[in-house]
């Protein structure tokens, strides 16, 4: 049953934009799989799914290729270890990092490929992340926070 469910999750996220665990639970129920949100959380972790942001700003789960998944985990670890704080100032995110970590954290942010990010500039412990609009800056900030919460 579990192997079948995992395969169904992959099928669903490959053909639909599913943005939350609750949506995934609902879609699986419609397909005849009765699961809890906790089960889905474990399945997402096992499958190595990541939330990405589409061009419309909506977040959804996506399957990572093996190399991409390996790098993604490393970049998320760099974010967790190096990022201290973030604040939006209009369309710029000011990101404070551990001393000497700004370049690594900046590279990790670049790897996440936010289409609303125009560019990043890293110093020693501060990153300026220029975003297209104030609303997009808030969305990118929330997305980074969500990435940091993922296991």
Describe this structure in words.
The protein has six helices and six strands; from the N terminus they run H-H-H-E-E-H-E-E-H-E-E-H. The chain has 151 residues and is α+β, with helices and mostly antiparallel strands. It has a four-stranded antiparallel β-sheet. Strands 1-2 form a two-stranded antiparallel sheet. The longest helix has 17 residues. The radius of gyration is 17 Å and the shape is elongated.
Radius of gyration (Å): 17 Å
Derived from helix and strand composition plus strand pairing, the structural class reads: alpha+beta
Question: Rough shape?
Answer: elongated
Helix tally? 6
Features:
151 residues, elongated
Describe what is shown at a glance.
The protein is an alpha+beta fold and 151 residues long.
